[in-house]
Amino acid sequence: MTNRIYTAGLVVIGDEILSGRTHDKNIAQVASWLQVQGIRLSEVRVVPDVTARIVEAVNALREAYDYLFTTGGIGPTHDDISVDAVSEALGVPVIVHPEARAILEKYYADKGGLNEGRLRMARTPEGAELIPNRMSGAPGIRIGNVHMMAGVPHITAGMLDALTGTLEGGAPLISETVGGFIPESEVSTLLRDVEKAHENCQIGSYPFFKEGKVGANFVIRSTDRAELDACLAALCEGLEQAGFAFTHGGI
Amino acid sequence: MTNRIYTAGLVVIGDEILSGRTHDKNIAQVASWLQVQGIRLSEVRVVPDVTARIVEAVNALREAYDYLFTTGGIGPTHDDISVDAVSEALGVPVIVHPEARAILEKYYADKGGLNEGRLRMARTPEGAELIPNRMSGAPGIRIGNVHMMAGVPHITAGMLDALTGTLEGGAPLISETVGGFIPESEVSTLLRDVEKAHENCQIGSYPFFKEGKVGANFVIRSTDRAELDACLAALCEGLEQAGFAFTHGGI
């Protein structure tokens, strides 16, 4: 654990997200997992199933951040082109990975055996390692700082589990939340002043509309527990002085 | 309605999405709405509440696509910096928009009146028009091809309603879905061949895991009804010949 901040980018690959057909669950899932590893998700790009667009996004984000994750496009069908695109981005050929092939042969042994589509899932960029997939055989792929995961959220979850503790991270960002039926427009000056007075903390204000009333959750984030606690105390004091009721943990 | 394809980019602004705290709902919402307008969502970038990062994403996507949408960061608090960032991206000053100010004065007349935070929501890039917000007063902002919407999904929904029919679009992308408890790895060759035979159609394959079984939905997309129907018929015939049960509309 160091004071350095570790960052990651995420490329979500898939026409189904851009068409609105599928509600993405991987952004929040990868973000939460990275948080625990002490790595900050710094940018997400959602791109269509078009090789040139995947290549561009992968190259931009793998160079800008410590780690790059991709989700989607590593299945058996013709629209699964992520391996080809990442290989092109890295300038390496696509190979059939012997270990991945062995895993798939075993997995499909009692399911009709390997066929052309299933064999596609053994393809990786040359030089890659595999990320175990305990859910459905076909592995994720790790090459350099690039981590290629499935698009189906529960399979991605299994791959993230397999990666837990294997990536170097910094001090995790910790947070405290207070919330109430408080119009954020009535406390904007307070929030700004409390944040200014606690320089290693950020305060985010997230309005909501519930039970017919407006309110907001205020989330304080820091990598330092003592500073976080001091900032929290100052915010709570300010809200109390202004006569607002609030709940720790948020609403 | 023309044959030209109209495209849009979306910049989702907000630390709360990148921390995993908030599950984004605006990507799917904006995507579905654009689809109906005949506009294709071509790229999404999620960026933090950092001016330089917003400026970079806004400039990249407003130049690359016909329309740019942003969500988030137009509220009353210190972390709402989208107006400043978009103004910087466009090279115009931030002004207090007289019409927006009048709307907010009226909205807050019986809620304690305008204060510093509330007045922030009357700020726009110079030259902007307003997008009505029937939910909570503070308007969205339209300047050039840039459309700035709220982060809170139900407010964004109201702003999208207000924009319905005001943007030029092409033929809407239409789709048909068939799905079944069919392992996609058993039909990958069929999918590829059917897609190849229908050049104005794309077939997406979206695997799922339900009731303890694997399956997939196959979504055919086209801007042409006749070609879509022909492609659908060919896919259904192929699935039948292979002995698979499937459901129109997907599972």
TrEMBL record, chains A, B:
Residues 9-171 form the MoaB/Mog domain. Pfam families: FLAD1_M, MoCF_biosynth. It comes from the Bacteria. InterPro entries: CinA, FLAD1_M, MoaB/Mog-like_dom_sf, MoaB/Mog_dom. This is Competence/damage-inducible protein A.
